[in-house]
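Hi P.,

Sorry for the delay on this. The queue was packed all week, but I finally got your sequence through. Input first:
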Amino acid sequence: MSAPVAAAPPDTKPPVSESRAEPIIRLEGVSKSFDSVRVVQEVDLAVERGEFFSLLGASGCGKTTLLRLLAGFETPDSGRIAIAGADMAGVPPYRRPVNMMFQSYALFPHMTVADNVAFGLKQERLPREEIRRRTREMLELVQMTGYERRKPDELSGGQRQRVALARAIVRQPELLLLDEPLAALDRKLREETRLELVSIQARVGITFVMVTHDQEEAMTMSTRIAVMKEGRIEQIGSPRAIYEYPGSRFVADFIGSANIFEGVIADAAGRLAVAALGLALDTGQGSGLAPGTAAALMIRPEKLSVTRERPPQAGNLLEGVVRDIAYLGNLSIYRVDVGATQPVQAALANLSHGSAAGIGSGDRVFLSWHPADAVLLTR
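Then the structure:
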C-alpha cells in the first residue's frame, strides 16, 4: 500500500507492539469463496482488546462474511483466525469467546424482556440468584429497568435494540460482533443510540467489532476503522487518520466528500500537473516520485477558501463560477465550475446573516487552499 505524501499523525498506525498483550483478534491470510467467487481475500488484521473496531464498506465488499468467519458461522478456505490467543480452527460458534448481535435483533417473541436477557445464563445453568442479579444489572445498564415483563412486540425499535444488546453482553463475552446494529432505527434514533453504544462499550470493557456501510456511523463510534473493498482491507486507521490521510483514491472518495485532481508528477519538487486545469498544483513537499508518474491530489471541501477577490497569497489557486449552492443548515456546499470534468466542492460554515460567504450562484470566485491541507495519492 502506498502511503500518502502528507505526514500522518501517530494514530494512523494500528497500535500493535511486541510489548503489548496479544491482540484479541488476529487474522493471517484469511480468504473465503462462495461458488468460486472470492468474497474475502487474504485478509491480515489485528484488533486490540477494548477497541470499538468497525469494518466499513459498501454492500458486497466482504465485511459481513468476515464477521461470520469470526463468529464461526463460516469456515475460511485458507488462513488463520485466532481469538484471545487461541486458534479457532475447528472451534464451533458456541465454544468461541464471542457473542453476536444481529441486525434483526433475533429476540424470542414469546419471552419477556427479562427472559430474553437471561436466556444465555440459564443455558449455562447458573444459580437462580446470579441470573436475576446479572439480568437486573444489564437492564439497568441499557436503561430498560421497568420493562422486564413486556414482550418484544410491545417495545419500540430502539427498545428492542437495547434488549438485544443486554442479552448479547450479559454472558460477558470477550468479543461482541455487531452486524449493522443501528440499521433498523430511524435517523434521529440512530444518532442518539450511537453515543449510548459507545458509552456502554467503554463501561463494560468488551471489545466490539461492528459491521457497517454507514461512514458517519463508523467515524463517530470507532476507535479504529478498516475500510474494505472487494474482499480486501484497503486501509486501517483511526477515524481522523482515515479521513485526513486516505491512502488511496477509493478511501478518499468513500469516506466523506473529496475533490480529487488527477494528473502526473511535473517536476522534482513534486508538483502535480493537471491537464484538465492547465496548471500545476503544489503538493506541499517533494513526492519522491519521478516526473511523469501518475498521481492525484485530494482536498476536502472544508479545507477550501472561497472569495470574490483574488487572494494576494495562495499555495494553490483556482478560478471559476458558482454552479449551485446546497444549504445544509450549519454549512453550505458550493459547487464551482473550474474547467474540470466535475465541479469543485467547497464547504463553508453559515454565518448569522445571509449565505456563508455572501456569494450566490453565477458569481465568479477564487478557490484556494494551503498545500499542507491536501494529500497526494499514488494509487
